[in-house]
Structures are given as structure tokens and as C-alpha cells.
Write a structure and sequence with these properties.
Number of helices: 9
Shape: globular
Distance between the termini: 23 Å
Strand content: 15-25%
Strand order of the largest sheet: 3-2-1-4-9-6-10
Largest sheet: 7 strands, mixed
Length: 243
């Protein structure tokens, strides 16, 4: 079991635990990188990082890792137990990060561990379109209809929700993780081609990564997987939010 900590720079992991493995993404050359892995080795799409964000790291884990259970988190965002969340809120302490025993226990009762819901005032699609060119969702919907028509109903359901499991973070068995990636990346590659060809979309930075954030819920819903929501903290701030 490994939880891969995605970063674009060197950083200090806030705990000493071999469960957590730093993974530097985006072909970045960084100093003091002892102990880090890089997503521009092996089978990779590291060159796409400007658009895909942490998803280039997710792709690398899919193609290059053999573990029974894998997780994705960020250099400043980590899953914690409820006690860890409370300690962060009340005393700004960074403690009670998930350990292997915690993950094993969670996965006895769920297929996938995700972070707590992020709630919106508007529906998911409207919230997405505030941060990404609105034509992107139209392209996503068109490609979904072409590639995975059985998922259209799930896409519409997720679009109309007023919450989402964001950030492209999760923990699950590698066999489930692989199934998700096998579905996700062909769709994202095709959406990216359409975005490139569109004269209505100018700024592509982070666009595909933000689309990927919404697609996790689509895949989970369609495949009827059991979820366990988990608190997380942001180690760079007193984290009043659940994500």
C-alpha cells in the first residue's frame, strides 16, 4: 500500500510514515529531491501537467505502480481521522494522518475513500463553468455521448447536484483504481483534442484537471461503488473547510 503525495515542488511531509511517497509532477527539476519519485519516468504524460494538474501523477501511478492499495493526496492536503480534523480546527495541530491500519479498516466497509463533499450554492455544472470556459462542459457531454453513452444519465445527475468530491484525491484497491483510469484517460484525451480544436476556448491551463474532478463522481455513481468520505486538512492554513 502507498499513498502518493502529488507536488510540483519539493516539500516537507508533515509525518514520518513510509505509507506516504512524494511524487513530483510536471517534468519539474527540483532540488533536495531525495526520496521523491517523478512522473516523467516510465509510461507517462508528464508534459500535459499544465492542463491536467495532479492527473499526470494519477496516470503515472496507474501505469507504473504495483501495489494492492493506492491513494492520491496533495503536498498540502492530507486525509486525516476525525480526531485529526478536530485538532486542526481547535489548535491548528497537524496530527492523526491516516495510517495503513486506518485505510484497511475503511476499505473493509467501502470500495473507495474520497474527501468530504464540497457544497455549492449553484449546481455542479454552473459552479464548474465559473472556473472553466462553459463550452468545456458541452464538449465533455458530446464526447461522453460518443464514447460512453451509458454514463450520460450519471453525468446529468452529477451536473445537477449541489456538491462534488473534488481535488482528484482518493484511496482504493489498485484493481479499482486501474478500472477508473482505463475509463477516465481515454475520455480526457479526446476532450483535450476537442478543446484544442475549438476557437471558443483560449485558456487551457488546468482545464482538463478540473474536468477530471467532476468525472470521479460520474464514474462512482455509474458503477455503484460504496464510498467512505474522509476528512482532510490543508497543512498551509488553519483549515475550517472539510476539504
Amino acid at each position: 500500500m502507498k499513498i502518493y503525495v502529488i507536488s510540483h515542488k519539493t516539500f516537507q511531509i508533515p509525518m514520518e510514515n513510509p505509507l506516504y511517497q512524494p511524487l513530483i509532477v510536471g517534468q519539474n527539476k527540483v532540488e533536495n529531491s531525495a526520496g521523491c519519485l517523478f512522473d516523467h519516468t516510465g509510461d507517462h504524460i508528464s508534459e500535459k501537467n499544465r492542463r491536467y494538474n495532479e492527473l499526470t501523477g494519477m496516470y503515472w501511478v496507474w501505469k507504473n505502480v504495483q501495489e494492492d492499495v493506492v491513494g492520491i493526496c496533495h503536498y498540502r492536503r492530507y486525509f486525516v481521522t476525525p480526531a485529526g480534523k478536530l485538532a486542526n480546527l481547535l489548535a491548528e495541530k497537524q496530527t492523526c494522518f491516516l495510517e495503513e491500519k486506518d485505510v484497511r479498516k475503511l476499505l473493509r466497509h467501502a470500495d473507495v475513500v474520497v474527501h468530504n463533499k464540497t457544497f455549492f450554492r449553484e449546481n455542479n455544472r454552473a459552479q464548474f463553468e465559473k472556473g472553466v470556459n462553459p463550452f468545456s462542459w458541452d464538449i465533455l457531454e458530446q464526447e461522453m455521448r460518443s464514447m460512453y453513452p451509458d454514463y450520460l444519465s450519471a453525468l446529468q445527475t452529477v451536473a445537477n447536484r449541489k456538491y462534488a468530491h473534488l481535488l482528484n484525491v482518493l484511496i482504493t484497491e489498485k484493481r479499482i483504481y486501474d478500472r477508473y483510469c482505463e475509463w477516465l484517460f481515454p475520455l480526457l484525451f479526446q476532450v483535450e483534442k476537442r478543446l484544442d480544436a475549438s476557437d471558443k476556448i483560449k485558456n487551457m491551463d488546468r482545464s482538463v484537471g478540473m474536468i477530471g474532478e467532476r468525472l470521479l463522481d460520474v464514474w462512482l455513481l455509474q458503477n455503484r461503488l460504496k464510498l467512505k468520505e474522509c476528512f482532510s486538512i490543508n497543512t498551509e492554513r488553519k483549515d475550517w473547510k472539510a476539504w
